[in-house]
From TrEMBL:
This is Methyltransferase FkbM family. The keyword Nucleotide-binding does not apply. It comes from the Bacteria. Keywords: Methyltransferase, Transferase. One of its GO terms (biological process) is methylation. InterPro entries: FkbM_mtfrase, SAM-dependent_MTase, SAM-dependent_MTases_sf. It comes from Paraburkholderia graminis (strain ATCC 700544 / DSM 17151 / LMG 18924 / NCIMB 13744 / C4D1M). Pfam families: Methyltransf_21. Residues 81-244 form the Methyltransferase FkbM domain.
Length: 301
C-alpha cells in the first residue's frame, strides 16, 4: 500500500495524508508538522481537516487572510480570533502586520498547545496574546466534546435531546473553563475585527461579550442553526446584536466550502433572511454560512 502511494502521485494526493494519519495511531505518533505559506505549522496527527488542507495546498482560509490584510491595510488595530484552533488565521495577519494586536482564544488543550508552538515557530514579534478559554455568557467550568478527525469541530457539550447528526454521542467529554469576554483585560485599538467560530456557542459569546464586540468595526461570525440548537442557544441573540450595532454586511460561504459571497446589503435585510433558517436549517449540520458585518456600507475584504 505504501509503495503504491509513493509511486502514484494521484493516489498520494487523494489518500496519502489519510494513510499517514491512520498509520500514526499504530505507531503512537501524536503530532505532525506541515510546511506552507504561513511557515511550518503543527497539529495533532489525527487532524484530518485543517492541517491536512494546509499540507496539501500550503494554505488555510486564504480568503479570510486576504480579508484581514485588506481590512487593516498599513495601520495597526486589533484582531479577536474567537475559536483560534492552531492559529491558521491569527498567524498570517500577525506575520504581515506587526502593528495588529491579536487575541487568540482556544479552549481545547491539544489545539492550544499546538497554537503556542505555531506562534513560537512562526511569529517573531510579540503581537499575539493567547487564552486557553471558552467564551460564554457566564464564568463556569463546562463539559466540552472532542471531535475526532475534524479538530475544528470541538465544542461545548449540552444535553438538549436533539438528534445527533455528527456522531456527537460517541465523543470524548472533557471540561473547559468558560469566561465572559467583557470580563477580560483586553485593550482595543482601532480598527477592530472579530472572527467568531465556536461551533454553536455564538449566542453565548455575544451575550457575554456584548460590550467588547460592540466596539468592533467588523465581525465575521459563523451562522449554523444546527450547532446553536445542539448547545441550546438562542440564535436571535446573534441577529439582534448585529442589527443593533452594524449597518451593512453580506452572507458568505465559509472557507471550508467555496469562500464565495453574496452582495453587500443592509444588516436588517440579512438578518430578516437568516431568521427563516433558524428552523429550516436546525436539523442539518451541513447548512451553514458566515455573516460578515460592518459599520459602513463600504466593506473591505
Amino acid at each position: 500500500m505504501a509503495k503504491s502511494l509513493l509511486e502514484d502521485s494521484s493516489l498520494t494526493r487523494e489518500y496519502g495524508y489519510l494513510y499517514l494519519s491512520s498509520l500514526s495511531r499504530k505507531l503512537n505518533v501524536v503530532r505532525f508538522s506541515a510546511a506552507g505559506q504561513y511557515g511550518t505549522m503543527v497539529s495533532s496527527s489525527n487532524d484530518l481537516s485543517i492541517l491536512r488542507k494546509y499540507a496539501e495546498t500550503g494554505r488555510w482560509a486564504p480568503e479570510l487572510a486576504e480579508k484581514l490584510k485588506t481590512f487593516f491595510g498599513e495601520s495597526g488595530g486589533t484582531y479577536l480570533d474567537i475559536g483560534a484552533n492552531i492559529g491558521m488565521t491569527t498567524i498570517p495577519i500577525a506575520q504581515c502586520n506587526e502593528r495588529v494586536k491579536c487575541y487568540a482564544f482556544e479552549p481545547e488543550p491539544a489545539n492550544y498547545r499546538n497554537l503556542l508552538r505555531n506562534i513560537a515557530e512562526n511569529c517573531p514579534s510579540s503581537n499575539i496574546e493567547t487564552f486557553q478559554l471558552a467564551l460564554h455568557e457566564r464564568e463556569e467550568v463546562l463539559p466540552f466534546e472532542i471531535a475526532d478527525g475534524n479538530l475544528g469541530d470541538h465544542r461545548l457539550h449540552i444535553e438538549t435531546g436533539l438528534p445527533a447528526k455528527q456522531n456527537e454521542k460517541s465523543r470524548q467529554i472533557i471540561e473547559v473553563r468558560c469566561v465572559r469576554l467583557d470580563d477580560l483585560p483586553i485593550h482595543l485599538t482601532g480598527p477592530v475585527f472579530a472572527k467568531i467560530d465556536t461551533q454553536g456557542a455564538e449566542p453565548y459569546v455575544f451575550a457575554g461579550g456584548s460590550k467588547t464586540l460592540a466596539e468592533a468595526d467588523a465581525i465575521l461570525v459563523e451562522w449554523s442553526p444546527y450547532h446553536m440548537a445542539r448547545l441550546g442557544g438562542n440564535p436571535d441573540i446573534v441577529l439582534t446584536f448585529l442589527e443593533d450595532h452594524f449597518s451593512h454586511g453580506r452572507i458568505e460561504e465559509t472557507d471550508a466550502k467555496a469562500g464565495k459571497h453574496g452582495p453587500t446589503e443592509s444588516m436588517k435585510t440579512i438578518t430578516t433572511r437568516l431568521r427563516g433558517t433558524i428552523t429550516q436549517w436546525r436539523d442539518d449540520p451541513l447548512n451553514y454560512v458566515d455573516i460578515y458585518a460592518t459599520k459602513s456600507p463600504s466593506i473591505g475584504g
